[in-house]
Amino acid sequence: RGARRGAAMGARALWALLAALRAGWCLLPQTGYLHPDEFFQAPEVMAGDILNLQVYYPWEFLSSSPCRTVVFPLMTSGVTYWAIKSLQQLDICSSCINSYTLLVSPRLLFTIFSFILDYSVYRLAPIWEVDLWKALVLLAGSYVTLVFYTRTFTNTLEGLLFALLMVLVSSRKSNGSSAEPTSSPLIGVITTVGFFNRPTFLAFALMPLLYWAGLIFDSQKSVKTIINHFLKLILCACFTAIVFITADTLYFTSVRLDNLYSINKGSLFDVIAQLHEKMVVTPFNFLSYNLNPHNLALHGSHPRVTHFTVNGIMLFGILHILAIGAGFKMLKKYVHQLIRVKSYSRGLPGLLVHSEGSPTLLLFYFVPLAFLSLFSHQEPRFLIPLIMPLVLFSASHNRAMKWKHLIVIFNLLGAFLFGCLHQGGLIPCLFHLEQLIHSPASSDHPRHYTLLFAHTYMPPRFLLNIKKTDMHVEVIDMAGSGEAALCQTVEQQASNFTCSNCYVFVIVPGTVRATITKCGVSFKNETLIFPHLSMEDPPQMPILSSGNWTSQLGLYILQLDRDQ
User: Fold this and answer.
1) What secondary structure does DSSP assign to 9-74, as a single string?
2) Half-sphere exposure of 216 (CA within 13 A, CB side)
């Protein structure tokens, strides 16, 4: 008993250390750039709307093609930007709005939200008969938690809502038997909220909802009571949907709430009629776009087994492999069980309720994975909500303990690769350029800056902290343009110097630096930001193994020479 108590105390201390690391690394901040959606589905849009900064509005947020709800961006990045704007207006903080606060404040809010995962494990571990502190350490030590759950992804919110849904549908009495479900309204709200955040949430919600339905039928003898549970769920889901549809319609039709207070009764009815005609239901637009194979191909097509064979291992390592092994054993067991007449009478909900905890957790993991695999566009971040059932499953029966050293090494490498290296120079580069643009020298003598980005992820403009009324900064994103197009643009910029206060900067990864030298232009200043790893333009191994490896793992800021 003393050894168990000591192990539990050690696990608590380790969890506290990992929790502090999660918050501290967010504030540091993390420099890794995972995917453009991290910025362009919330912070970039809200910085333009609330702080009036120059931004790039993605097509999903244009009124001509609204595919993303505005509610979550407003409630997350919008709230944090409103807060720092208010602090600056009240002179409490004269320079609150800068590239650091613009990046970190929404991330900090998401980091705080990420502890919903820890709370969910705290609630679920006793129900599923899992060692609490082993599960918490496994969760907090995962690089998915440290990196992905501290970023402003809609997938992050999807994972938090999935965890809350699992808490709501899982209930046990003190004697271990199934308790009567009492959370029908909240389950309806969470399911609808998740659907409006990402329609793929239905894939994650399917098994929890079937499990909940199984508990309802198993614990209730009255048909009236069963109908009452489902009516509560449906009514709350419909009310939540109305709230989202109203908010999105107001936003995308440019009818703002503050305008409604100054209109008379007659015109109010006109506005309501107008809103009804222009009703915006973003999940349906999202599904309409993504169910078109041609549209998905524009974002990249992958084999249907990519989630199973690549992405799951990339995110969860050995835990995913252990789950697959256990899944095959479970499938073999239930194939034999389904042959029996008793299994046919219970049906799927009965199997879920009467089975042991581990098989049910595997269904919570693999059923969403299977549904997401039906789509040809498969990115690793789509699977991050599955960390909750996987951690609970892996922590049961000491499955993960046998592989603890491998798990530690895997998560250290993952945290370093995605939290620091991957496109890791772009955010510090934008910090550097923001300080340059807003330097006292630039303020005293107005300058015009042209920033040309090539072979990097899309640069989030809001981190430059440029007001929409300021026209002295131009951003050109060349993406992955070929050598000819890149050189043509650079040469064009070199020949367009029309003023003494014009400055042109070319930002390229070190692996493309040699291409720029072929463009026939000269540079007078070079700034190398380290580290920066571009998987689209990977380092060349011969150069990487030589003494010049830092240039291959860096991002260059090249200032064009005006006097060439």
Assistant:
1) HHHHHHHHHHHHHHHHHHHS-------THHHHTTHHHHHHHHS-B-----GGGSTTS--S-SHHHI
2) 21
Question: Over the stretch 530-552, which tens digit does the pLDDT of each residue have?
Answer: 999 999 888 877 766 676 778 88
Single out the residue of 519, 520, 491 nearest to residue 504, CA to CA: 491
464-523 per-position pLDDT tens digit = 999 998 888 999 999 888 888 999 998 888 887 767 788 999 999 998 988 888 888 888
Residue 98 lies in a domain: yes
Question: From residue 526, how far is each of 396, 519, 521, 532 by CA, in Å?
Answer: 54, 16, 14, 16
Q: What is the CA radius of gyration of the chain?
A: 26
DSSP characters over 89-138: HTTSSTT--SHHHHHHHHHHHHHHHHHHHHHHHHHHHHHTT--HHHHHHH
> What are the beta bridge partners of residue 12?
none
Q: Would you say 326 and 393 are in contact if contact means Cβ atoms under 8 Å apart?
A: yes
Q: Percentage of the chain surpassing pLDDT 90?
A: 59
387-421: string of b/e by CB count within 10 Å (b at 16+)? bbbbbbbbbbeebbeebeeebeebbeebbbbbbbb
Q: In terms of domains, do 293 and 438 share one?
A: no
Joined together, the tokens standing for residue 109 give 């809010």
Verify cis geometry, omega within 30 degrees of 0, for the bond prior to 283.
no
Residue 141 belongs to a domain: yes
DSSP conformational letter for 153: -
DSSP state of 172: B
Predicted pLDDT of residue 277: 63
Q: Are residues 394 and 492 in the same domain?
A: no
Beta strand 448-453 with 523-529: parallel, antiparallel or unpaired? unpaired
Strands 448-453 and 473-477: parallel
Start-to-end CA distance of the chain, whole Å, equals 78
- Rounded to an integer, what distance in angstroms lies between the CA atom of residue 226 and that of residue 212? 12
Domain of 203? 1-344+354-421
- 453 φ, ψ to 5°? -100, 135
Contacts 24+ apart (CB under 8 A), 309-312: 310/380, 311/378, 311/379, 311/380, 311/382, 311/383, 312/369, 312/383
- How many other CB atoms are found less than 10 A from the CB of residue 204? 29
CB 455 within 8 A of CB 425: no
Q: Does residue 284 share a domain with residue 250?
A: yes
Q: Are 315 and 382 in contact (CB under 8 A)?
A: no
Which three-class secondary structure state does DSSP give residue 146? helix
Please tell me whether residues 391 and 530 are part of one structural domain: no
